Amino acid sequence: MRLSRCFCILSFYLLLGRLAGQSYIWPTDAGQILTSTFAEARNGRFHAGIDVKTWGQTGFPVFAIRDGYVSRIRISPFGYGRALYLTLDTGEVVVYAHLERFSDEIQHYVKEEQERRESYEIQVYPAESQFSFKQGEIVGYSGQSGVGYPHLHFEMRDSGNNPINPLAKGYQLKDSIAPMVSKVLLQPMDALSAVNQDFEPVIITPVYEGNGRYRVAPVLAVSGRVGFGISAFDQMEGADNRFGIYRNEFYLNDQLVFSSQYDRYSYDENRQFKLDRNYRQMMRGNGYFYNLYRDVGNSLPFYDRTDDYYGVIDFIKEFSLENAYFLQGKIVNPPQTVTKVWGREHQYRLVCYDYWGNAAEVRGRLQVDGEHLILPPIEQEESDTLFQPNWVEAWNDGESDRPQEKKYYRVSSQYYDDYIRLSFLAQEAGLEPPRVSGRLCDKEEFVLPLLRIGENEFVGAWPLAECSSVPLELTIESITRSGQVRRQKESFGFAVIARGKSQIFVTDEGLSRIEFSPRSLYKTLFLRHQIEPASVGGAPQTVGGCYRFEPADVPLNAGARLTLSYPADEESPAKLAIYQKYGDQFQFLDNILNGQQRTISSQISGMGEFVLLRDGTAPQITALVPYDQSTLRNTKPRLSASFYDELSGIGGENSRVLQLDGRKVIAEYDYEKPELFYQLEESLSVGKHIIEVIVRDRSGNVSSQRHTFFIQ
Q: Same domain for 506 and 478?
């Protein structure tokens, strides 16, 4: 055993001789091409390591990068698959994941533990003296267990178990390709801020000028507090993959105003990925943008400063009543830590680096424009043809489904963190700009400043700070060419869920509720809801309606608990579960049953569309091998079963059982196929044998199939 290890060590150093003087050696001889880098996006979290390309193959030796001992072994059909944790002589921990198998002595130990526990999924913590390795010895072999294609996930953690960037350990990889920039984002941060004379985010595609240089051609108009973002990716020789950015810098007038660098983070902060990247743009289908500012609730260690709104720029043209700047402190309260700049024109520069210093740079110009806000007075006397108040219960888009009388302005709405962007489109010719008024959340009368974005369309941003859960009622007035006054009323309903408090939101009909804990939110949430009929829910198994909760584009911290009620005449409550609806697809969340209260509950990670579905259909078994009545010459056949479930999905390990001659075998589960399989290591006796698979879904529906086969 030691001789074979020494041979592997020698071969390894011959292959990677240029690394011989380093204190950390490369973890495999599969090569030094990556498929993923540190802190990339991974389903709403950060990628905790780097992925080494294994060229679609498995079985490459994996080495101890320094002297160390095995401190943990975890085996699961999900996530990391077969994972080995090696504690180094430095106190750091290395994780090798998606392995095909471990070294021989570890493999034998793992098999004994699985059989002793009668479980494929295990997690063990060997004694420090049990499995020790010298630098360069083989600890396992690369594979594709768990999630994904064949590759080696290589992860490093400090002594406090925090992920750190493995590239910081002196590895030298071939990479001379600069990152590529796809989009630039400018986002108004409150109701007194605008980009290009509007209150919604602006996404620009920069023009590539060569040599890693980009330019945003149009001069962008800005006013108030604006946050920047960038969509970019890196590349390297030998791979077609798109990698994450290592460092971002934001310069305004050649002064560095923000930087982020991805060296380490804590698992406790993993959810804050949704603050480091722009969650709203991600949920709206615009991809991943790196936020070039530090949002409220973000405690990640990637930034030079720890204060809220670090990187947000407060563009001030001049102190005047015309640009409504005097309303700061009255209807918005931006943090004092924003970077204030004065003047009419500015230049910005965004720079993205990969780990090796290759850079992409975007340049552009800004013009501060804060004097276009309209506050039109209505001075004419009201005529006999005044439009009678038309109250509309508005939700999300500011419109109701029920038939309405003719309105002089079509009103639509978009909700942002602490304001509503309201659009007013004239429905008849000849109307003057409207005057929109109502009461602020502190009950003081307020006339909404408006921006003209079209010949007959105006927009404004109504502030929501300090609001309570009461309808926002607005009056819209305008004057015709003949001097008549047109008036209509609009109402916008929402519930205010305050950050840092325990609150319960109950819908009007009492059939659903959401419980928020003090850790649920990063920011105050302005919650709206709508219940659609079951037929609109899109599934025949729907019990009750389809519950839509907004905003779906605002990230939650610790999430919330959703509870839906089912009717008293429901015959199979154990078959019910809460699902999240994505278009025509349904994702199982949970089915915590309270029979006394007739409710089903689940934890949710964000707002969205939810339905209560009944799953009364058992899983489908599509294959069981060996086939029924087959005769085999191979005395060590591979046993396998394939199956699927259309709705709730297959449960845990005890819900998928493979038996041989009445005894459970420790079968491996590949959920991506899905397939349950077991390779016999001992010969079966000649004669008759029985294989059986039993599968249970999360709603308790069971399927089984049995085959008889013969060994010659």
A: no
